[in-house]
Give the backbone structure.
Amino acid sequence: MTPQMTALRWLDPPDGPAIVLLDQTRLPVEESYLTCTDIPQLVDAIGRLVVRGAPMLGVAGAFGVGLAAARGDDVEAAATAIAAARPTAVNLSWGVRRALAAWRAAAGGTGLVPARNEGAKAALAEARAIAEQDAAASAAMALHGLELVPPGARILTHCNTGGLVSAGAGTAFAVILAAYQAGRLERLWVDETRPLLQGARLTAWEARRAGIPHSVLADGAAGSLLAAGEVDLVLTGADRIAADGSVANKVGTYGLAVLARHHNVPFVVVAPVSTVDFATPDGRSITVEYRPASEVANLAGHPVAPAGTEAYNPAFDVTPAELITALVTEEGLIHPVTPGNLRVLDAATCR
Amino acid sequence: MTPQMTALRWLDPPDGPAIVLLDQTRLPVEESYLTCTDIPQLVDAIGRLVVRGAPMLGVAGAFGVGLAAARGDDVEAAATAIAAARPTAVNLSWGVRRALAAWRAAAGGTGLVPARNEGAKAALAEARAIAEQDAAASAAMALHGLELVPPGARILTHCNTGGLVSAGAGTAFAVILAAYQAGRLERLWVDETRPLLQGARLTAWEARRAGIPHSVLADGAAGSLLAAGEVDLVLTGADRIAADGSVANKVGTYGLAVLARHHNVPFVVVAPVSTVDFATPDGRSITVEYRPASEVANLAGHPVAPAGTEAYNPAFDVTPAELITALVTEEGLIHPVTPGNLRVLDAATCR
């Protein structure tokens, strides 16, 4: 069973297959869908962030290979083009590689191009498997994370970690949703998450859709919220976790972690095991991407600083393990976050 | 000598007097000026934040009384209308009251309405005196604050504290400008200061105008900047200081103070003695103004969150004295910030 996804659907009508994407660039103003019937359309959509978020890009990349195969395109060339749509998105090329391997295997290891039907079936089955695994990981993270949510919890979150970026309920947002469904969530506080406003634009949209009581705040207002005793738990996702437990996540996460510690509020990171990168020994080894000044100098396309203003605009920051109360993975809780406790994950998942 | 002001000029051409305001609502996109030749125009401009900031509103209110007197208006009625343009702005009504008292006194204490020329002269002289005192206080704060700036300093600031809100160089920005002129400033880091973006819109404009090397950052990026060792000093202004040294300032200030402490970076507040409110015993007694959700959910009419989204939007936050390394006033440095050290100011200024 392919999970019901928010961000992406596979359609196979008589007139030819298609990938239908919820256009995230138009949220929250408009809920519109973009139908990709060929690979150039999909590559363009991925490049423009119509679909985004680490796990979801893996799913989209794999379905893209399936689309190319079903159309009878040159699948190897299509796979290369899709993976190049966002070259730094590790999950995208990983999803593409998995579906491509399934497609190749459909020729029975002969090294020949598989028959169109067989190849497409194999690639699509792999895409569905990726989505199922992601949804299952979300469900497991939600279950484990729920243990950390007290009754009547007021949870503060940062960036966007829900169904828009996952085939399931996501990471931090999956725990939030489970807490709401268990009657334990009093309020969700949503950092707007400048510069790209993923909190205000996307997490608020997800919370509203789920019926979760929520309020958005400017990132700088989190301190006063914590000082007022209005936060019981901070929950975020992670973009990459180093072997020493340092967490790279959307810029602003580190400041929240420092504030949470100052106020003795638990700061919990929710991320699948695949986020832990044992090849990166520590926080200092994580390369932070610096993004264009225009993201800060503009807000929703409107200039907010003098033309030509320079900006310091890191996409991520790094939170050291000692500020992280616990890490929630699909394999269970890691607490405290230490290199030794993380290595258990490495062994458990045999990657 | 009336100081040369950025935000406001008094004009007295043959065809009648006028107050010319730099329209701060159009910054940074456009440097345009609004000429107010009567009181309704000025009241409207103050209400729309064409002119803003505590000390500058005192100056504008006093010049407004001078304008009414020079026009031969009902000065008492004009004074009431100006003060009501922003009822919670304490400095506005204070400036109006000072100029009105000077106008009344021009009738020689007879209780009569003063002669038009004499009344206008007296009110304008008082307005100029307010501006001079403010400029002198700025200069003194700059001098005292400079003692805290090391050579090659990289200073992080929040909100807008320069010549747009002062008849002089402002508060924190006056120290920054002095440091730049003394060759001690390597870089100014400017928090964009959501939701109203006073940093990106106004402080970046002031820095550019002064030739100061600067970069804007999303408020959430300050943590990573401090963690990278790129900040030697954090300088902010204050909206109100309680008798225990708690500082109410633009939302986001408290989070910066916690981060600065975490990284052992000095966190210094620059504010005139008039900001210290001895009638407010402590931080908890400071009433924080909560502003509309629309400020967070919109920018220039463009929605950045789903329609109807609730927001937590305090205008200010409160930083306890123990997180403040020093307070710079026109009377000198206060360090450490303790009730006893603050009381010395109270005695010194005989308010």
Summary: The first strand of chain A starts at residue 8 and ends at 11. Chain A has eleven helices and 17 strands. Chain A touches chain B through 56 residues (CB under 8 Å). Residues 142-349 of chain A form a domain with the Rossmann fold fold (CATH 3.40.50.10470).
